[in-house]
Design a protein that fits this description.
Layout: H1 16-27, H2 41-50, H3 67-83, H4 92-95, H5 100-116, H6 127-132, H7 137-142, H8 145-163, H9 168-220, H10 229-238, H11 245-263, H12 270-277, H13 286-297, H14 301-309
Helix pairs in contact: 2-3, 10-11
């Protein structure tokens, strides 16, 4: 079913001229540009053609000019999608702007869907009669009159030229110049439309990549990671005013420097290490000294002499006795 076709499907490679021919032949209209269907009325009638009686045509406005009136048509179309359980998302805000690329993509999808219903066979569908029930439908039907009259005049042209042989050369020259002017104008219109489509495609691509860069910027502004070297390097590239390759080289150098600092072990100075390994001298407690002095004072004279005799020669005059 066409409701699930992807953007790379063959339906989106159908040309603008083929889409216009399909719309004009199915609904008996005389559209010259795809964006003329931006009001949503054409899409509603196409759904009415493949699903007769499903679309309330009296709610469709073929004379919609303002965005509010166009939105009402798309609401009717959305209700039909909901009834048929079609999950296609309608980008109303883009379609009502009348941009050629957006309207072309949606009409490509519409053609693919209509072709998938009963093989594209719509039976005996009277588009003009169904359009009479719409607001502005009669005016839209009148716009098809010049097209039908031109077809009739072209079919009766051989008889007229046969009866008026004297004016054949002049009429042929006038018709040739008119056809040449018309073909030149049509060629210019096609070039302008192609350029518009190209510009719209570039704008979409620009908006896509800008959104990606904006997401990266918001992520880098997270307080938990904004001070990391890798985030700083990304911001340096992101906020660079030019496309100089030196900016990328500087960002890579910042990351490399941080990695080298992280891999280098932190060693202490040999002097500090020796000072830390040297054992600290033990200090006697003041209380211990006081106890020793008190003990020596309580010794008898005989015990003091025995202690003196145990002392080795150290240059003291007491050892000469």
């Amino acid at each position: 079913m066409a409701t699930t076709i992807g953007m790379m499907d063959s339906a989106y490679f159908v040309g603008r001229n083929e889409i216009l021919t399909w719309i004009n032949s199915t609904l008996h209209l005389n559209l010259s540009k795809v964006e003329e269907a931006a009001s949503g009325a054409v899409q509603c009638q196409l759904m009415d053609a493949v699903h007769p009686g499903m679309v309330p045509m009296h709610k469709v406005n073929f004379d919609a000019k303002s965005e509010y009136e166009m939105i009402q048509n798309y609401k009717v179309l959305q209700d039909v999608f909901n009834k048929l359980k079609i999950t296609k998302h309608i980008e109303v805000n883009k379609l009502i702007k009348g941009r050629p690329l957006d309207n072309l993509e949606f009409m490509q999808w519409m053609k693919r869907y209509c072709d998938s219903v009963n093989g594209g066979i719509m039976g005996k569908y009277n588009a003009v009669e169904r359009r009479d029930a719409c607001k502005g439908g009669k005016e839209a039907n009148k716009k098809t009159a010049p097209l039908q009259s031109s077809v009739r005049s072209s079919s009766s042209a051989p008889k007229t030229q046969a009866s008026l042989g004297t004016k054949k050369g002049d009429s042929h020259a006038v018709n040739s110049s008119h056809k040449a002017t018309k073909s030149a104008t049509q060629a210019y219109d096609e070039q302008i439309t192609e350029l518009k489509l190209f510009v719209d495609s570039l704008e979409k691509e620009r908006d896509f990549y800008f959104g990606k860069l904006r997401d990266i910027e918001i992520l880098c502004q997270n307080p938990e990671i904004e001070h990391l070297p890798i985030v700083t390097a990304i911001q340096k590239i992101l906020y660079a005013a030019d496309d100089s390759p030196s900016v990328v080289a500087e960002a890579q150098a910042m990351i490399t420097q941080h990695q080298q600092q992280a891999e280098t072990p932190h060693t202490l100075s040999p002097i500090l290490e020796a000072s830390e390994e040297r054992p600290k001298p033990k200090r006697k407690d003041i209380n211990t000294l006081e106890v020793d002095m008190a003990a020596s004072s309580t010794l008898s004279p005989k015990q003091r002499l025995s202690d003196i005799s145990d002392v080795h020669y150290c240059g003291s005059p007491l050892t000469n006795y």
